[in-house]
Write a structure and sequence with these properties.
Layout lengths: L2 H15 L5 H28 L4 E2 L8 H17 L2 H7 L8 E2 L1 H25 L8 H14 L1
Parallel strand pairs: 1-2
Helix pairs in contact: 1-3, 1-5, 2-5, 3-5, 4-5, 5-6
């Protein structure tokens, strides 16, 4: 990630949840986004195959009400900070048995943005006074998301 990208990443977490993150957190963040997108795409692939689709379409993605609300919150922050291009570069597209449809691929950066917003908010829900997440905080949040997604 470029220096500009790191700065925007830091500003995003400050804006979303009042958190101070640093370069050391970027690898954790990238790992989180790639793992959760992969998990979502695996479930979407199963839904697409069950419905006889030849590619994963947006309606195959398991987007919950909470995630959709996080996507909306992300859009508001993104309008100011313009972090979608950075998140799009971070968000990998894993190899799957089905292709990812064009409309789905276009939606993935915003979904990753919604996951990013939910991630940031989860830190302060779990520990309201938290300002600088440490390894133990990242591990706790990862475990929570793994349980739910």
């Amino acid at each position: 990630m470029t220096q500009s990208g790191v700065h925007k990443f830091e500003r995003f977490f400050r804006k979303a949840a009042g958190l101070d993150v640093d370069k050391a957190d970027i690898a954790r963040y990238q790992d989180f986004i790639n793992r959760k997108l992969y998990d979502m795409l695996l479930m979407a692939q199963a839904a697409a195959m069950a419905n006889g689709h030849v590619a994963i379409e947006p309606h195959d993605l398991p987007v919950t009400k909470g995630l959709q609300e996080s996507v909306h919150a992300f859009r508001r922050i993104d309008a100011e900070l313009e972090v979608t291009p950075i998140i799009d570069r971070v968000a990998g597209r894993p190899p799957l048995d089905l292709a990812i449809g064009f409309a789905t691929d276009e939606r993935l950066p915003e979904i990753a943005g919604g996951l990013s917003y939910a991630l940031a908010r989860t830190f302060v829900i779990m520990e309201p006074e938290l300002k600088n997440p440490q390894t133990k905080h990242w591990d706790q949040v990862f475990h929570l998301f793994d349980l739910l997604m």
